[in-house]
Amino acid sequence: MHLLLIRHGETTRVDSETGIADPPLTDNGRDQARRLAEWLKDERLDHIVVSPLRRARETAAPLADRFGLEPEVITKLAEFDAEASSYIPMEELRATRDPRLNAMTEGRWEELGSMVEPEAFRSDIIGALDGVAAAHPGQRVAVVCHGAVINVYLGDVIGTPRLLWFEPRYASVSRVLISRDGIRSVESVNESTR
C-alpha cells in the first residue's frame, strides 16, 4: 500500500483565553490546499484520512472534492499541541527565536508545559498509521495531518529516535510504501508544488 503523508497548509497564530486553539488556514494556506489537489489530480487515490484539527480538515477538503471521497477522521493523528490554548506557526517561532522551538527540536518536551507525553504521542501515531495501512492493503491513502506526526512516522520507518528531525513544508507530500508483510520504506520526503 502507499501512504501519502500530507502536512496541512499555512495557518495563523491563535491565542485562546477560553479553550483550545484550533487555527484555520490562511488565504495562502487555502491556496496551497487547492494547488495540492490540482497537483495530485492524475494520481489514483482510494481513501483520505485526516486529523480532527481544523487546519488539516481544511487542507483535505479540496482533495476530497476532487476525488469524491469522504475523509475519515482519526483522532490519534492530531498534533502534539492539540490541547494547547495557543498555536504559533513554526516560522514565527523561528523568526522570534522562541525558546520553545529549541526545546522541541532538542527533545526537551518537558519544557513545553501541557503538551502530550512524547512516547505516548509516538506510540499513538505509529499505531494509527500502521492501522490505516492494515485496513487498506494495496490502496493509495492520503493522510492529511501535521509536521510532528509526519516526523514521528517517517522517523520510525528510517529508525531515528528523534521525534522532530526535519521540517515538512506546508501542503507537502511524503510517501511511504508498505508491503503486505508490513515492510515499510520511504519513497519520498517533502514533495511540494512550489
Overall description:
The chain has helices spanning 27-39, 54-67, 90-95, 99-105, 118-135, 147-158, and strands at 2-7, 14-15, 47-50, 72-73, 86-87, 140-145, 173-178, 184-191. With 194 residues, the protein is an alpha/beta fold. The chain has a single domain (2-191), classed as 3-Layer(aba) Sandwich (Rossmann fold). Strands 4-3-6-1-7-8 form a six-stranded mixed beta sheet. It has a two-stranded antiparallel sheet with strand order 2-5. Helix 1 (27-39) runs parallel beside helix 2 and helix 5 (118-135) packs across helix 6. The chain starts with a strand and ends with a strand. The model has no long low-confidence stretch (mean pLDDT 93).
Question: How are the secondary structure elements laid out?
Answer:
Blueprint lengths: L1 E6 L6 E2 L11 H13 L7 E4 L3 H14 L4 E2 L12 E2 L2 H6 L3 H7 L12 H18 L4 E6 L1 H12 L14 E6 L5 E8 L3
Parallel strand pairs: 1-6, 3-4, 3-6
Antiparallel strand pairs: 1-7, 2-5, 7-8
Helix pairs in contact: 1-2, 5-6
